[in-house]
Structure formats: C-alpha cells, structure tokens
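Re: beginner question about structure tokens

> Can someone show what the tokenized structure looks like for a real chain? I only ever see the sequence side.

Sure, here's an example I had lying around. Input first:
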Amino acid sequence: MSQPRIYVIGAGFAGREIARELAGKSVVGTVVAFLDDDPEKIGTNIEGIPVMGPIEEIASLVQKTPADEALIAIPRASRDDLRRLYEILRRGNFSRIRILPTISQLVGDEAHFIQTRQIDPQDLLGRTPVNINLRKALAYLRGKRVLITGAGGSIGSELARQLLYGGAERLYLLGHGENSIYEIDAELRLLQEEGVGESATIVPVVGEVTDRNYIRFLMKRLKADVIFHTAAYKHVPMMEANPVAAIQNNVFGTLYLRQAAEEYGVGRLVLVSTDKAVSPRSVYGTSKRLGEQIVRSGPGPTAGMVVRFGNVLGSRGSILPLFRRQIEKGGPVTITDPRASRFFMTIPEAVSLVLQAGGAGSGGQLYVLDMGEPINIRDLAEQMIRFYGYEPGRDIPITEIGMRTGEKLHETLLDIDEEPGEPVADRIFQVQSLNGQEEMLNDIDSIVETLRPVCFFDESRPAEYRNRWKLREILHGLFPDLQEKIDEPEY
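And the corresponding structure tokens:
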C-alpha cells in the first residue's frame, strides 16, 4: 500500500521541522513539496524537497506534482489567513487537510508531526489567538507538583498538554472517568516519546472530588504545590434535570478540595469558572458562582483564585460538536433563538491564559478573560454548514427550538456589582468586586451548610435529602435571577 504524498504548506521553521521528522517516518507519508507564497523561497529546494508556489495556484500545482494530503505548518497564521488557506486547499481536492494547532503557535520554538490533526471548524472561527511565551508564563510551575482535576475533560486535558512545557516535576491527572483519564495519560506519554515538552512524571488518578475522605487522603500523599480545578458538571439543561447533582459536585467538590488544600499546604488553587456564574439563571450557574466564592474566601496558606471565561470552541457537550453531528446526518441544525449570542474562544487559547493568570495572583483574585465580541449562534451555524461544503437553508435547514430552562439570550462576564480593573496581562483582567460580592464571601460557610442536608443525608432532616424544591428555595434566595421550574418534581 502506497503511503500518502504530503504537501507541507509553509516552508518556515515549523514546516521544515515536520518535513525533517517525516523523512525518518516514511510509513506515515512522504513530503513531495513545500507550498509557500515567499517569492525568495519558490523555486528553491530545502533538503531535497522543492518549494512550489504561490499557494493560490494550487490547482495547477497539484496537476504537476500530485499529492494526497495537505499539512498547514504556519504557526503564526491569523484566522483570516487560515480561512483563505482552507478555501484554496479545498480546491485541491485533498483527501485530508491537516493543521499544526495552536499549541505550537503558543510555544513558538517546537513543531512535531504528532501535534498535527485534521483541520476543524474551530480553527477558522473567532479571532486570532494571542501569542504567549508558554515557557516563560509557566516559570512559576517549574519543579512543582501540579494536580489537575477533571483532567480527562476538554479544559483539563489541554491544561495537561500545555503543562508538558512548564518543567513541572509531576503532573497528577485526577478524574472520575476511567476511560478519559486513560486516554489523556496515554496521549501525554506518547507526546513525550516524540520529544514534545519536558520530562515530567505523569501520574493518573481515578476518583471523585465529592469523596471528602479520599480527597484529604490524596492531598496528604500527593503533596501537590498547585491545583487547577476544572472538574465540574457543566451542561445547563442536563443540570436543570439533575440540580442536586450539580450542587453536590460543583459546590461540595470544590469545598472539599479547598479544605484539603488548606490542610495540607497546597500553595495555589486555581478554579476554572464560567460566564454562566454571572447573575445566574441556571442551577449550573449558581453552583459555579458558589464555587468561585469558596475558592476566594478565607485566609490560609493556599492562594485561591478564579479565572472566569465564556464558551470554548469544540469542548464536550458544546454547540460545535452538536452542529457537526446534525450536519453529518443531513440536518436540521437546531438553534434556540436567532438572536442568541455567546462568547467563544479556542480551548488552547483559554487554557494558556488560565495558566498565565494562575501565576499572577497571591490569593482571592477573580480574573476574567477578554473573549472579544460575542458571536451570533445562527451565524455560527451557517459558518459550520459552509465549512462542510453545504449551503445553509438549501442543503441543510436551520430550525429554531426555543430557549431551554436556565438559558440566556446573551451572556456577560461581569455582574452588576463587578467592574474590570487594569489588565494583568494581555487579555486577562482582574475583577474588582463591590459590596454584594464581599457580603457573600463572608457568608459562604453558612450558605454551604444550608445546602448540605439536600446533598448528603442527615438523619435529623430526612425530608430535605435530594429535595429539589428545598434546593431551589435556598438558591433563589441567594440568586433572584434563577429561573423557576414550575413543573419540577419534589424529588
């Protein structure tokens, strides 16, 4: 069986590194040419591989030198550049178009074939990610033991990938899903084998953050210096159907982690939060807002801080994978309301900013990420349909299904009693909290105790256990914007 013939788009350092690597891996494919727009490179040879161009003339170039796959290796390409390249390459009828994703863009001085993947709509949507010197941003983690909760999820797994560059002594990957922890553990080890990042010891850990005794046991044994807490139930409609589970996992899991971190001297705890915690209308939003307060509250040896941002493109349970599945089956693509909009950011950019913010504070800080302009959901659906080569309305219908319980037309990153301070880094702002926030911070312990008998059985208050009405009564008293659910059963 013949191996794929590959065009590498971009004859810069990244393209050359990948071509050099592939020269020793002929089973993966053979680079038959570089494609570039630089007139000084076109017509030359790099290590025996011709440089052809300009890229715009892809149709005639493919006729002269046939290829099966294209690999975009331009780390600093803007979103506009990538959209242009994708449209040109589509005309070349390649069986696959690969891309060297944002992680290489962020690190800047490494490029490995193992990091490439098939191009995805998220690579073409939204703004151009900010460039960060990742090794410099992660200097505070060098030689440290770092624990990631929810390490098998979209944010947690990307944190793990980027932390390979930080020089951490150990990476603890904690999650309750055996399969997802197995997958990220195996992926990181394979990345290290291929020369990506540094030689941190990787330790997979399967367990629940809501198991208080186990979390204390872990904190005592692991001796983590820094924790990135991403473990959470996140799907708004699902949590509206399971509200007690949302509070138990997102509030008490965060509480137990914070308490154990304090008890065993963890230096830094960073909570990943969401714009849905702002004036929350959903139980999920209230659970994350309470989690924010837990992490930021109280003096102690652990510097607790929160990083809040909006939707990330392509995460599990998010709108992009849903749209893709709907398109693949021929539609319709469903949207809640044509006016609805959301903030969007790529997972790698969000994670790099979380990592940078995690080293900025000394405890108690709330940071928000500059998400850019919100994206209209209908526009997003139309862009997705066109990415897959169809015309919205004609080939794939778009259907409105109405807003679901707990959802908003538009999200914001700041509440009415919050205001942005000066940026601590590019696209990272520290939030100044006003009176309402400080009051809840001071009262968070008693708030949590009112929720405890709903989530955990108390013989003296058995009627409150798993009682949804009681739960909503408590939450509505704290968050007046919480949407009522009239048809909800008591248990």
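Each token stands for a local structural state, so reading them left to right follows the chain. Residues 343 and 374 are 4 Å apart (CA to CA).
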